[in-house]
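TICKET: design request
STATUS: open
ATTACHED STRUCTURE:
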């Protein structure tokens, strides 16, 4: 939005999504002419940077993959919530979890089975149920 560089990221919607496109020239004009808009925009950038730093600390720490998977599940629970029976309100493929955590999908599947045996989670097809938040917190520590 504020540079002439192309975006270096991509995104895939996990649920039905409505996309809103903004005109770059209109945004730049508002940044130049509207101090309140400019401040709000800068605040947004700073908030995004803080969130990115927090998630980087969670997922790229020196903890084991097992601990980071527990942290990931807790993060998803916090970010997206769950229904009354504990089903996460977001679906994330095992392959995506593996990519985020820097490991193989097979290892994630194996760890999820262990979490299930420990009664921390339950799975039904591609859906994840959080059964013990406190158990995941202990495991993530």
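STATUS: resolved
RESOLUTION: sequence designed for all positions
ATTACHED SEQUENCE:
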């Amino acid at each position: 939005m504020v540079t002439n560089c192309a975006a270096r990221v991509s995104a895939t919607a996990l649920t039905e999504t409505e996309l809103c496109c903004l005109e770059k020239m209109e945004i730049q004009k508002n940044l130049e002419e509207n101090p309140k808009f400019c401040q709000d925009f800068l605040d947004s950038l700073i908030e995004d940077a803080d969130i990115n730093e927090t998630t980087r600390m969670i997922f790229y720490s020196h903890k084991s993959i097992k601990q980071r998977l527990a942290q990931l599940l807790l993060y998803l629970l916090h970010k997206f919530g769950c229904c009354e029976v504990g089903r996460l309100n977001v679906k994330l493929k095992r392959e995506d979890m593996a990519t985020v955590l820097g490991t193989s999908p097979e290892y994630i599947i194996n760890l999820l089975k262990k979490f299930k045996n420990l009664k921390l989670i339950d799975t039904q097809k591609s859906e994840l149920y959080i059964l013990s938040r406190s158990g995941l917190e202990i495991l993530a520590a």
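CLOSING REMARK: The radius of gyration is 19 Å. The first strand starts at residue 121 and ends at 124.
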